[in-house]
Structure formats: structure tokens, C-alpha cells
Amino acid sequence: MSGEFEYAIKKDVRNNPIVREVDRERHAEMWRSVGVGVFLVAVLLFSAWQHFELLRHGYRIEEMQKERSAEEEINRHLRLEIETLRSPARIERLATGRLGMVAPAPGDATVIERVTTTPPPPKSVVARR
Amino acid sequence: MAESFHAAHDKRPDSARNSWRATLKSRIVVAAVGLFLWSTAIEARLIYLQVYRHADLIGRAERQQLRTIASSGKRGEIRDRRGHVLAYSVDADSIYAVPTEIADPGKAAAALCRALDDCSSADLQSLSDRIRRGRAFAYVRRQVTPDQARRVADLQLEGIGFMKENRRFYPNKELAAHLLGYVGLDNTGLAGIEATYDNLIKGHAGTVLIQTDAKRHAFSRVERPSTTGADLDLTIDEYLQHIAERELKAGVEYAGAEGGSAVVMDPFTGEILALASYPTFNPNAYRDFHDDDRRNRAIQDLYEPGSTFKIVTASAALEQKILKPGDYVDTNPGVIRFGSRVVDEDKHHNYGVLSFTDVIVRSSNVGAIKVGLRVGAQRMGIYARRFGFGRPMSPDFPSESPGILWDPAKQTDSALASMSMGYQVAVTPLQMATAISAIANGGELLQPRVVRAVTRDGTRKAVPRKVVARAIDRETSAEVTAIMEAVVERGTGQSAEIDGYTIAGKTGTAQKVENGRYSATDYNVSFVGFVPSRKPAFTIVVVVDSPHKVPPYGATVAAPIFKRMAAAVLQQYGVPPSINPAPPVLAVRRDVDDGHQQPTSTAGMPPSIVTVDSGAPGKDALFPDLTGLSARDALRMLARLGMTPRLNGAGIVVRQIPEAGAPIDRETAATLWLQRQIAATP
Lengths: 129, 682
What we know:
Number of strands of chain A: 1
Radius of gyration of chain A: 50 Å
Number of helices of chain A: 3
CATH topology of the largest domain in chain B: Beta-lactamase
Low-confidence stretches of chain A: 123-129
CATH class of the largest domain in chain B: Alpha Beta
Distance between the termini of chain B: 130 Å
Structural class of chain A: mainly alpha
Strand content of chain A: under 5%
Number of helices of chain B: 21
Largest sheet of chain B: 7 strands, mixed
Largest sheet of chain A: none
Order of helices and strands of chain A: HHEH
Oligomer: heterodimer
Mean pLDDT of chain B: 85
Strand content of chain B: 15-25%
Structural class of chain B: alpha+beta
Number of strands of chain B: 28
Shape of chain B: elongated
CATH superfamily of the largest domain in chain B: DD-peptidase/beta-lactamase superfamily
């Protein structure tokens, strides 16, 4: 053996599965990023959903406003019709013309007087007398 | 390491190996430059649109996306004293055209006219001209009926659109037309109550800002809502008004008169219950009627009252103690002269010596003149004003004529003589009704009014009764009432008599002034009175203008109208007869916690009016006595109490559980037993 060393480096090729050490910090950072990303997307989606819901409800409200106005107007027309139908001149015309009715003679009607009960006089009044 | 490994295994020459890299690199550069230019162009465009054209585009967007619609404020309702609607507003369609979008104006106008169904050739020509003018907007017809709108819509014409406008309707048509007035196309009151209270009834317009999408569908709105005007409750009774108009029309037509008016008033409150004028009109189509038809004769027409004014003369004489009812007045020889002017009695009568009462009962002109001369011009003027003549009486009628009274200082004996018998003074029927009411109510001159209450924003404010002044004292009022009763019992007003009722009244007949002279053919005839005279419920004044078919007298024309009107209103209001009244039928109003009951005058089971609650404040409601009620009335009562009814049998209620007076338990059902025949009371 000479004084020189020869080194023979044996290339140690390990085909064993590499077990990477979990970098917990990066892992957490990744999850944070994912979380933030999901949150942002969720906010975006929620905001979009809100916007479209708002629009949808806007259309619906408009439709209902129209319906309400129409119903109110129908109601007013019907009330007008009722008032027209119960006009005294019309009823009298129908009663005397179509139904052959006549106005009651003075003797035909009996006047009913409503009597309200008179409270008994308070004792103090009686006592003063 | 990896690169050297690949290089070691890549057998291609270096030049080939580097060429694709150069190509890729150059392409990437090109793509990057392209992308950069593209994004720069987009951003430049964005900056141009967002910055330089910002205002312009915002304006365009708003014009496209936002629509401002004016919503008209609805007029308030006008109701009678019972809440029946007399005037009401609903939306009506107005049809408009955009002439620039109409290719053939003549054809379109013809089609529209056919659909409207009531177009004259002039209307067709006018419509065609309006469309031909080519303006941006033209009305085809405003406030059409629903049928007309539907027919026009069915045509589906290009350039024809619809818009909603508020329209006033009067469901009873001619009823109280003069009183209510009418409203123009622009929703402004033009006459009557509609004009007087226009500011109060008229609602205020609002605006609606609507945001629309590209398809013009609205999805958002900002609203400044319109307000509805105040509702008016009138003192008018719809049915009494109908009676007054019906009888006035019948009387005017029977007498062949030009027109007439009638006022029915509550003498103790001044409330006008009916105010009729004939000829009349339909306020729904007021343009189709002549101005004369639309004139409210009861407040606008002045007439010389004739003998009805003798009541004022009599009141002045009695209150000033110039005469007593039994004092005598010599009317011989039946004429009285003032220079060349001769005044005589009707049909040249000579009544001789009459009591003061009989001067009025027989309506002696000479007697009234002699009384008037003794009263004097000054005092006659004072009493005429005390009775409300010579000035407008009601704030509800701005168009009311004040009437005409002479200045007493300038009055000659002849003029005073005329005034004493109701000439040379001019009054309105409303003034006369107010004056007669003062006699009926014991001497108070009340402000006549037609508005009973104003309801605004849910708050109802009643218009109070207003005493203007005391016209005469109670004693004078009683004496004049007795004289007026005698007029109807045995004098000129006998044709106004109604069986069973005492009536105080006075006839009046006065020649009309035409072309500055008294007409020999045309008269204003009238009857004024109140009924029942000793407990007045109604003051009624009837004035008929120029009757020609029957003798023109108050007794022959106006008094029968008064009679029919009074009989109908007395019956409608259930006013019992004042002469030999039949024993009254009494209905007991039974208060359940009263402990004592009013005896009734009728035998057997009396009908009972039940009270829902105990009537005492602070106490819980008790179950009412339903016996004697029909099934329908009992069910209605139970429904009001919120209880479930169970019915056994048919007829009227004879038994009930819970008993009357029991505390109300809404969880339990109320059981009622009904029978057709009531068992005889032992």
C-alpha cells in the first residue's frame, strides 16, 4: 500500500422510498392559503348569489306590486259597481217596475220606538229630596 | 444534474437542439407582445369608456334602465251621512298615439274610431289630423271605458299605447249632482263640493323610479308614494236626496214648470239632508249637458219669495210687540195705493177685518203691507238680516248668491210695502230654509252646512254645529209656529196637510221679473214649512219656477210637492204621528247587568234588542240574551262575539246555552234552540 489513498466512492443508490419529513409549518401555511382561498371564493360566490337573489326577488317584488295594484284596482272597480247597483233610483225602478211593488201607505208602517232603560235615581238625589 | 443527464442521452446535434428553443422563445415573445397589446387595447378602451365618456354613457344607461312614472294621487271619497259612496275615483285607461311610429295615420284613425264606437265624423277628422301632425305624442281619447280600452287593445296597432289616469265616478249618476259638482280631466274639481274642497279632497301625485333590464322588465323601484285626499262625509242622506229629487221632478213635470229646487234641512243642527235642483245632469258626463242644467238653483238662483216672506214681517211685528196674534188688521177695501201704484189681494178679494193670524193664514197682501208699515223699514231690514237674508250663509257653497235687500234708509213706503209681502227682496231657497229652521228650532239662526266630517289619514274631524245669531226669541218662535200651523190647517197651505202630523207652513207666489217688468204669466211659487210642527224633524222648502200647466200658486204646485216629500221622509225616518198617535210599539233595550227591566206596552213576547256587553265600563263582556232573535240575527251576533254556534230547530231563538249574562267563553260553542211558534205567554 502506498501512501496515497484511493477512495472509491460507492454510489449508494437507495431505492428505498423517501420519507420526507413533514414540514408542518409549510403544511399549515398551505392550509391557511387554501382556507383563505376557499373563503374568498365562498365570499365571492355568496356575494354573487346574493346579487342574483336580489335581482330575482326584485323581479318577483315588481311582479307582485303589479298584481297588488291590479287587484286593488279591481277592488275599486267592484266597489264602484256595488255602489252603482245599490243606487236608490235603480232599486226603486226595479221594485216598482219589475217586481210590481208599491210604497207602503202611511197606515202600513208601524213605528217602533226603542226604549232604553232608565237607571234608577241615585240615592243621594232621593236623600236630598 | 438532470440537464447533464438529458444532454448525455440526447443524440441530436446542438444546432437542432437549440433551434426549437429559439422558435419557442420567439413565439412566446410574440404571444406576450400580442397579449400585452390586446390587454392594453382593452384597457385603453375601458379608460375611454369609463373616464372620457363616463357622463355620457351614464346618462344613456339611466335613460335605458330607469323609468320615472308619475303616480297620480287619488281623490278622497265623498259619502253621505250613512257612509254610502257618492263620489269615487278609479283608474281609467287613456289611449295615446306615437304618430312617428304610425305608417298610415288615416287608416289608424279609422280603426281607432271604429273601436271606440262613439266617434263622429268630426272626431275622426280631428284624430286623423292629430296623428298626421307627426309629433312625439298625441292623445287619442282620455279616460275611456274598460270596454273601449279592450277593443282598442285588441287592434294591436303600432304606435298606440295606454296609460292609467284617475277618473272620478258618481255611482248614483244624477243623485245630488248639483251638490257634488264634477271633476275635469285633469282631476280638478270644477263645481260643487268637488270644487269647494278641491285642495282637501285632491290627493298629491307621487313618483316611482323603476330600474329595468335589457328586456325592459322592472326589477327594482324607488317610490315616493302618492297620497290619497281626505274623505268627506256629507250631511246628505242618500235616500232623502232621492225622495227630494223624485218628488221635485214629478212636481215640476206635472206643473209644466221650467225648473225647481228643494231643500230638506235638520232645523236643530243646520245640516242639509237633501238639496235638489231640477233640471238635473249626470256628473259622469257633465259636458253633455247645458249650463242651465248644471246650475244649482237652490243656492244660485235668486227669487222674490212672495208671501213666504210674510213670516219675517210677522216675526218682526210679534217680537217688537207691535201686534199680537189676535189683534185685528183692517184690510178694507182690499186695495192699497202708493201714489199711482195699486196693490190688491189675490183675485181682487176683500178680506175685510182680519186677525193678525188670519192676515198670514189668508196671505193678505194689504194686511201684510199694513203690518209692515207699522214695523217700519229700519226694523224690517234688521229682521231680514237676522234671518240671514242678504248675505251668503254657508262656507260650503262659495257660489251661493248673497241675495238682495234694500238699504232701509233709502226705502220708500212703496218699497217697504213690497218687502212686507215678499217683493223687492231676493233670496235663495237655501237662505229661506235657514230662516224657516230658525223659527222651527226656537229662534236660533244656524249656519247651513253640507260637510259633516273630514277624514284624513285615519282621523275623522267632525264639523260642529254653528249658531250664527239669535233671529227671534222663543216666544216669538212659538207664536209664529202657531200661525204657520193655522196656514196649513185652514189657510192657503191646506194642500200640504198630512194625516196625523201637525205641519207649520206658508205658501208663496210671486211674479217673475222679466226684462225689468213683472211678468203676467211666469211666477215663482213656493212652500216653506217644518214638520212635525211641535217637535220639528225636517224643514222643507220647495220652489218651482214658472209652472204653466196648472194654476201658478204655491198652494197648487209647491205645497203638494212638499206634502209628498214630507210624508216620505217622515216615514223613512220613522217619525211617529203627532196627532192622535197610535199606541207606540216599544222595543226593550235590555242591559244584562241592569237588574231591572223596562215594562212594555204590548202583551206577549216583545221583540228585544240585545246588548253585547254589560254596558258598564271596565267590566268583561257578558253573553247576550238572544231569545226572540231570528237565526240569522243570532248567528250574526255570535259571529261578532267570535263564538261557534250550534242550532237546533228553525224559527226564532227560544232557549240558549250559555244563559244570558254568563261570562263569554270563546272556547265553548253556543247552543241555540229555535222554534217557529212561540208558546203563548201565560
